[in-house]
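Hi R.,

Here's the chain you asked about this morning:
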Amino acid sequence: MKIYTSYFDNWKALVAHKVIIVSVTIRRPWGFTDMPVLSSLAPNMVCKNAPPNKFLETYRKEVLGKSNPYMVYETLKTISVTNNNADIALCDFSKPSNYNYRRQIALWMQQYLDIRIEEFPIQPNPTDFKINEKKTGTGEIG
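And the predicted structure, written out as tokens:
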């Protein structure tokens, strides 16, 4: 099993490559009923209330600092095994950047597990459907 990070707008490329999308948001986007969700890795209210320049620091302390990377890995392994040993992509709504929290998850897991987690290399076509986050925090395809 290879683990990637990506974002929901990249879903067509991920599905085409048989990569299982795992949400690291509080819930899955609307319309993706079978998508696994690791809500324990989603930013909590302390993170959301942090000043923008303190968000990642707060996220590392308040979420990753209270999580177990070995248990996260075992959960991902179970998801992979139940899907014919498919690769996994940890996804959120943010465009690729080293400054979003899914990349912080990757760095955290790499540090503890001695594995490499890269951003999934294929980007969506701008004319493809986009997944938009509703104000309620869910998403929709549109």
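The CA atoms of residues 47 and 59 lie 6 Å apart.

Let me know if you need anything else.
M.
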